[in-house]
TrEMBL record:
Membrane topology term: Multi-pass membrane protein
Protein family membership: Belongs to the monovalent cation:proton antiporter 2 (CPA2) transporter (TC 2.A.37) family.
Protein name: Cation:proton antiporter
Record has Transmembrane helix as a keyword: yes
Source organism (scientific name): Agarivorans aestuarii
Keyword annotations of the record: Antiport, Ion transport, Membrane, Transmembrane, Transmembrane helix, Transport
Length: 530
């Protein structure tokens, strides 16, 4: 009966959040607090599922992460500068409040203030990945930068935990470097397992055994192991398929993560108003993210969306606080206060991030003045010259369309994609492809289309991106015909209603195309030889 109530409350809360056009995670957070008030407590099952969710999340992030991202100035520079600046911000603020003798902050020791400040510097990897996946913007420039910053923060947290808990890596930790030459073996294994249930089981083995368990056995954080193993496999063609196979399990386990935040929090008026005070400081914390990203020559919109993805407190902050409580640096009540601050930051950040484009349009003139004159290489304006055909999204479908249209419009076809590695491959294959993010409103504002533009193909893998690009094309009154791809019938109907001249349903058309091809081949093979 208890499990039935837990599942019912969780579903209803998530569904109500969905009806209110909010991410379901907001409902799951609320469900945790509601269940706590109903007498439920954190138990081993929920705690284990939450840990599994975070570990799976980091593994799937690793599968999509180019390790070179971490060495880019806008990533390590922002992460490092932001950590230092915010340490000073929180130490100064908490010290001032202590001097005034307000609430339990006035009872903090100097060590407690420093550790608490460190915990508040982090932003949530779980939250950022969730909202970026929901908007299909993990591969957008701001999404890649935000994830890189979060991973750098996770590394800072691992160093802190190792230093404070006294759990130093064992003498066998350097042997983990052998994973690098072991990488080809993993690649061959991925090739052999195919795409069915065996691939799914392999994903769990790589996450929890080769990653988490192996790293934990040598004194390193298990989540870090899952991330590293995922990164080792990121270049394999089957990596994205494995991430999709694990997606449902990851989502289910993360429900437990959000529930556990509420279930572990003992509410009191003091913890609530201190949490609200800490959430107020998030405005300054987010402003520092924005300023640093602008300093690294990102466009104002890219910097703003990146800052909004990071405008929250983190589950790692709870871990740091728990260690501080165990060591006697903080009172146990601070766990509830931090959990409340994390929860409220999620509640506020989710609708803000969802409507970030609308908010940006209001403050765009002011942010534009802060933008550097020389922009980041990946954030440059888009020039199309005299091109007559534009293909947005250069995956397999976009690539095939490019080759076909090149026969009819020689040297007048251009492809646009966000993935620099994919672009390099296309250029080496002789195709004209440039970098650009068609889900970026500034992309459309800076796009200089050819006056002879005749056709635009929307071949991006996600419906959200194609729908957004179609709206921008119609808003900008481009004089070209527009064709788009869709995976589902309802998505195809939406694109047609928005004004697409032609929509190619991948499943329906692929079946018809297959039948036509087979029919033509059979007829050809049955013709008598002349």
């Amino acid at each position: 009966m208890d499990i039935s109530i837990l599942i019912t409350v969780t579903f209803l809360a998530g569904f109500l959040a969905h009806l209110a056009h909010l991410p379901p995670l907001i409902g799951f957070l609320a469900a945790g607090f509601a269940l706590r008030e109903m007498g439920f407590e954190q138990n081993e099952l929920i705690s284990t599922a939450a840990d599994l969710g975070v570990t799976l999340l980091l593994f799937t992030v690793g599968l999509k992460l180019d390790v070179r991202t971490l060495f880019k100035r806008e990533v390590w520079g922002t992460a490092t500068a932001h950590m230092g600046t915010n340490m000073l911000l929180f130490i100064g603020t908490l010290s001032a409040v202590k001097w005034l003798g307000i609430s339990s902050i006035g009872e903090l020791s100097t060590t407690g203030i420093v550790v608490l400040s460190f915990a508040l510097c982090f932003s949530s990897t779980v939250f950022a990945v969730k909202v970026l996946e929901d908007k299909s913007e993990m591969n957008a420039l701001y999404g890649r930068v935000a994830i890189g910053v979060l991973i750098m923060q996770d590394i800072f947290a691992v160093v802190f935990l190792a230093a404070t808990t006294g759990k130093l890596p064992t003498m066998y930790a350097p042997l983990l470097l052998l994973l690098l030459p072991f990488r080809p073996v993993l690649y061959r294994l991925l090739n052999r397992v195919g795409h069915g249930e065996l691939q799914l089981v392999l994903g769990f083995f790589l996450t929890f055994v080769l990653g988490a368990q192996l790293f934990d056995s040598v004194g390193l954080k298990s989540d870090l192991g899952a991330l590293v193993v995922g990164m080792l496999l990121a270049g394999h063609p089957a990596a994205s398929g494995m991430a999709k196979a694990l997606f449902s399990f990851k989502e289910l386990f993360l429900v437990a993560f959000f529930l556990s935040i509420g279930l572990s929090s003992e509410l009191s008026f003091e913890s609530i108003y201190i949490a609200l005070f800490l959430v107020g400081i998030l405005v300054i914390k987010s402003a520092f993210y924005l300023l640093y990203l602008l300093q690294f020559r990102l466009r104002s919109r890219t910097a703003f969306l990146g800052a909004m993805s990071l405008a929250n407190y983190s589950e790692f902050g709870l871990i740091v606080t728990a260690v501080a409580v165990q060591l006697g640096w903080l009172d146990a009540d601070w766990m509830a206060t931090l959990a409340m601050a994390v929860s409220i930051s999620f509640l506020l950040a989710a609708p803000i991030h969802k409507n970030a484009d609308i908010i940006y349009q209001f403050i765009r003139p002011s942010l534009k003045r802060l933008q550097r004159s020389k922009l980041h290489l990946e954030d440059q304006p888009i020039e199309l010259g005299q091109m007559q055909v534009v293909i947005l999204g250069m995956g397999r479908i976009g690539e095939g369309a490019y080759d076909m249209l090149q026969q009819h419009y020689p040297d007048l076809v251009i492809g646009i994609d966000t993935d620099l590695e994919k672009i390099q491959h296309q250029i080496e294959s002789g195709r004209a492809v440039i970098q650009g993010d068609a889900t970026d409103s500034d992309f459309w504002e800076k796009l200089a289309p050819s006056k002879d533009l005749k056709l635009v193909l929307l071949a991006m893998p996600h419906h959200h991106g194609n729908q957004y690009a179609l709206k921008q094309l119609k808003k900008g009154e481009f004089g070209a015909k527009i064709a788009a791809i869709a995976q589902f019938a309802d998505d195809a109907e939406k694109l047609k209603r928005l004004g697409a001249d032609e929509v190619f349903n991948l499943y329906n058309e692929a079946g018809a195309g297959f039948a036509d091809h087979v029919h033509a081949q059979l007829i050809a093979s049955n013709k008598p030889h002349e």
